[in-house]
């Protein structure tokens, strides 16, 4: 009996690395941010600041996202309700 794994055409290919879908960013009128986005499945808020830096804030509930997005002042809401309250990761470096 032949081992199928040794046949040239039947070798298993390694799994491709997982790539998350990008978060859809919505432009905002704010002196602090250029755009914000939210991943409802992963509870991730993503903010692109005026400097060009992009950060993801982890564990942000959907109500907080809705409140941020509908706020009269994105910057004030962000500073009062998000900054320093959630773990965050920087995604890129500003030029």
TrEMBL record:
Superkingdom per UniProt: Bacteria
Location of the KTSC domain: 30-86
Record's protein name: KTSC domain-containing protein
Lineage: Bacteria, Bacillati, Cyanobacteriota, Cyanophyceae, Nostocales
